[in-house]
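user: can you give me the structure for this one chain? tokens are fine.
assistant: on it. calling the predictor now.
[tool input]
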Amino acid sequence: MNSSALKKENKIIELVNVDNTEKTRYQKIPVGELFYGNYQRGLKLSWVKKIAKNFKEGLLGVLIVNERDGKYYVIDGQHRLEALKVVGLKSIFCQVHTGLTFQEEAELFIEYNKRRKGLQVTDMFKAALEANDYKAHDIKRIVENNGFKLDFYCTKQNNIIIAISTLLHIYKNLKAEGLDRVLKLIRKTWGGERSSLERNFLMGIYYFVKLFNDDFTNEEFTSKMQKITPAQILREGRQDAKYSTAGKSIIPYAKIIWYYFNHKKSEKNRLSNKFLENIKEEVEEKI
């Protein structure tokens, strides 16, 4: 790795070759010249205030930025930058990438934050969309094809899904077809009522589909379940979950759905109790 240091307008700039194609440099940049891309997480003012309150310039580290179209875009360090504005510091040392596209910035944002506990799944998913990640866009496509919308700001309304980690879990385990079926059942049966889009309800439908996928039709499900409200299923599921050996397991919600689906059916037409066959999963199937 070759490097050279030179002085320019009292700034120290170090050029570093990365993979022989990309160059980075360390440069002091005025706070007012730093901008954000849409892949960034939502700003948490409480976090900014905490950094500002305990501010020590020597412990800030460097911000990770990209020089694109004549501007500097912050990839890593959004909250630290906002804290700098609060305390009145005028400039900050940055590791500056050059030549990255917007999509590559988003991909780098994801890489920098994969190992950080503080970054929420929602933030990572939002960044993945900006980076044109196939899985993220496939989930978004399935959601929208079923008449729903994703929301990253916790807006609990009809037809709005905020349980991003739940969608990822369903997609991982049932693939695109399984997620599509789960959302179709909810759309046809409850019309997008907001309680039907809560995490526990989504996971209850998911596990029901996982166990009984080939044993019922969508039309049969809707006919049997549309008179049972999501609120009722959630209420009874929460009560049963108190006694579950799996802690925060979603199995009790699936069991309530199974019970109402079988209600008043003849014995030969009932779905079998596959929960007993999958007792190990009752402990493991939780997110």
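assistant: here you go. The beta strands are 3-8, 11-18, 22-30, 34-36, 63-68, 71-76, 91-98, 149-150, 160-161. The CA atoms of residues 125 and 136 lie 7 Å apart.
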